[in-house]
Amino acid sequence: MKSAIPETGVPITQPAAGNDRQEASLHGEILLRLRDYVVEGNIPEGGRVPERQLCEMLRISRTPLREALKVLAAEGLIELLPNRGARVRQLSPRDLEELFDVMAGLESLAGRLACESITDEEIAAIERLHYEMYGHYLHRDMHGYFQTNQQIHESIVAAARNATLKTTYANFAGRIRRVRYSANFARKRQRWAEAMREHEAILDALRRRAGSELSDILFAHLRNKRSAAIEHLAEGPDSARETAPQRS
Amino acid sequence: MKSAIPETGVPITQPAAGNDRQEASLHGEILLRLRDYVVEGNIPEGGRVPERQLCEMLRISRTPLREALKVLAAEGLIELLPNRGARVRQLSPRDLEELFDVMAGLESLAGRLACESITDEEIAAIERLHYEMYGHYLHRDMHGYFQTNQQIHESIVAAARNATLKTTYANFAGRIRRVRYSANFARKRQRWAEAMREHEAILDALRRRAGSELSDILFAHLRNKRSAAIEHLAEGPDSARETAPQRS
DNA sequence: AATACAAAAAATGAATGCAAAATGATTGAC
DNA sequence: GTCAATCATTTTGCATTCATTTTTTGTATT
Q1: What value does the mean pLDDT take over residues A158-168?
Q2: CB-based contact, B17 to chain A, within 8 Å
Q3: Which one, A4, A112, A186, B178, has the greatest CB density within 10 A?
Q4: Is A114 an interface residue toward B (CB < 8 Å)?
Q5: CB contact under 8 A, A82 and B164
Q6: CA-based nearest residue in chain B for residue A105
Q7: What is the DSSP string of A29-93?
């Protein structure tokens, strides 16, 4: 039987640089590596994750690996079936809806909080990102657009000055990362223009420090993304793939 | 050397009934028990949690216990110092502010979502809880008030029909449970009356399915709770203790 | 040839063992 | 008498081992 993990003899990747607080103990190292490995989509959805193989890959024994797996399961990235090993969690359409909604709630919250303490400089930085993104939009540069878009949203979360929120946000972002990426490519031209308008509204509310309003706008914005993603997956993720640039 | 754990020879409590999805494997059992044990405040803040002792207590070996500890650490309930064991996480005032704000965001989201699909029956049930709570208010029954209040908020979360949100909410609720409980006793009469008015506004918005409005009200409501809790802790948690009924 | 049963192989869950680090105590120096 | 250094004990981190459960494979029977 073929395993789900591609057999590179080399230990996966170097520990991710800017993740979050995690001690340097071997187990923590493993956790970071494994998380990135899963989030980056190196294992197909629902694919089995044989412990033995991962152990060889990471050159460690099963004990710290299993600890890491338990944590990843708690984070919702994988699921542990009793006596039947770990699988990469398969997200049902309903799961996705739920995740998007929670993300929407978190960003909405981030916006509200950001309005309480964001500085003019931070807003200026976001404005610069906005214009950069507008450039990508004009050039039809999906990849650039996606990245800058992500940066804007992360800037808002950062401006909320709430480390707990930031961590939680990162967790959820990780869970839907693959889908979210492909969801952005699902955007039809019309939706794209719409998103740009929404971003203008976001900036406007931010400038006025209108927390409650921004909260509404961000929620609606994410809700629209959700719809795009769901439709996209419904009609098959490959249909829009041709417009996607190669991923380096 | 005295340990932080009271030495009951009896294995702590029975596995919590209505917690969340967790397989019945020994490890899962342990996880549930330990989580409850910590959440219920059986270990003082910052207290050490010696593995050996817990093992004897739970009658298991260290392996599954350590797995459970890792998960609890990921959930933010305890922290693991490298080579120095586990401690119950001590929440700084800033941590509390952050946690309350995230809770506020989650409830705010729950309200918004609830407005999309809540039934008249569910609203009626919440109304009943509201009147029950009003009774507790009139009788100055803090404990009853606290419990009913909790039920109302949980009903709103349930009405959001989002299992992911519910789980996340439960997680955060667990983290601040002790503080939250005492925070409710911190309420001065004035704040209490204020909270009642806020709850009326919540119900009103809910009846009208005014999602955005409800979102604002809930956020403000939780923010006020936050303030009360912070002030309360600043002046020392014992100052209001005399009004607290005995805990069963 | 297909199905059912059985035995072997593999994988998981938990316990034990061993090395390294930390904690505490004892001893020695000033 | 106080402080510091060394040594013993405890505790943690990880590897290894043992026991079950699952999965696979081979064989026999229909």
Answers
A1: 98
A2: no
A3: A112
A4: no
A5: no
A6: B109
A7: HHHHHHHHHHHTT-S-TT-EE-HHHHHHHHT--HHHHHHHHHHHHHHTSEEEETTTEEEEPPPPH
Of B71, B162, B164, Cβ closest to residue A71: B71
Question: Structural domains in chain A?
Answer: 26-88 (1.10.10.10), 93-243 (1.20.120.530)
Distance CA B214, CA B220 (A): 10
* Per-residue confidence (pLDDT) for residue A110, from 0 to 100: 98
Q: For residue B105, give the nearest of A81, A83, A105 by CB distance.
A: A105
Q: How far is the CA of B80 from the C1' of D14 (A)?
A: 16
Burial A217-230 (b: 16+ CB within 10 A, else e): bbbebbebbbebbb
**Structure tokens of A80?**
């542990």
CB-CB neighbors (< 8 A) of A113 in chain B? 101, 105
Given pLDDT bands bounded at 50, 70 and 90, which one contains residue A96? very high
Q: Which residues of B touch A65 (CB under 8 A)?
A: none
* A222 neighbors A99 (Cβ within 8 angstroms): no
CA distances in angstroms from A11 to A8, A62, B98, listed in the order given: 8, 15, 37
What percentage of chain A carries pLDDT values higher than 90? Answer: 63
The tens digit of pLDDT for each residue in B105-162 reads 999 999 999 999 999 999 999 999 999 999 999 998 988 999 999 999 999 999 999 9
Residue type, A64: P
C-beta atoms of A112 and B219 within 8 A: yes
Q: Which of B109, B167, B176, B212 is most worth mutating to test chain A (most A CB atoms within 10 A of its CB)?
A: B109
Q: A117-143 pLDDT, tens per residue?
A: 999 999 999 999 999 999 999 998 988
Point out which residues pair with A86 in neighbouring strands.
A49, A80
Flag whether the ipTM exceeds 0.90: no
H helix intervals, A139-210: 142-159, 163-175, 177-185, 189-207
Q: Which nucleotide is nearest to B81 (CA to C1')?
A: D12
Phi, psi (deg, nearest 5) at residue A25: -60, 150
| Beta-bridge partners for A80 | A86
Q: What is the DSSP letter of A244?
A: S
Let me know if B171 is exposed, middle or buried by CB neighbors in 10 A (0-12, 13-18, 19+). Answer: middle
Residue whose pair of structure tokens reads 């890491």 in the numeric block: A68
At B181-219, the pLDDT tens digits run 666 655 677 888 899 999 999 999 999 999 999 999 999
